Amino acid sequence: MEQNPPEGLSSRDRILWAAASMLGEHAGSALSVRAVAARARVSTGSLRHHFPTQRELMETVLPMLYDMVLPEDSIHESSIPPRERLIASLQRQLAPSGVDQRPRDDWRLTFERYIKDEPTEAVRAEYLAIDRELHRRVEYVLTVLENEGSLAKGDNARRARFLLTVVSGLSIAQVFPNEGRLLQNELEVLGTAVDWVFDAQP
Amino acid sequence: MEQNPPEGLSSRDRILWAAASMLGEHAGSALSVRAVAARARVSTGSLRHHFPTQRELMETVLPMLYDMVLPEDSIHESSIPPRERLIASLQRQLAPSGVDQRPRDDWRLTFERYIKDEPTEAVRAEYLAIDRELHRRVEYVLTVLENEGSLAKGDNARRARFLLTVVSGLSIAQVFPNEGRLLQNELEVLGTAVDWVFDAQP
DNA sequence: ACCTGAACACCGTTCAAGT
DNA sequence: ACCTGAACACCGTTCAAGT
Question: In the prediction, which pLDDT does A71 show?
Answer without folding.
Answer: 54
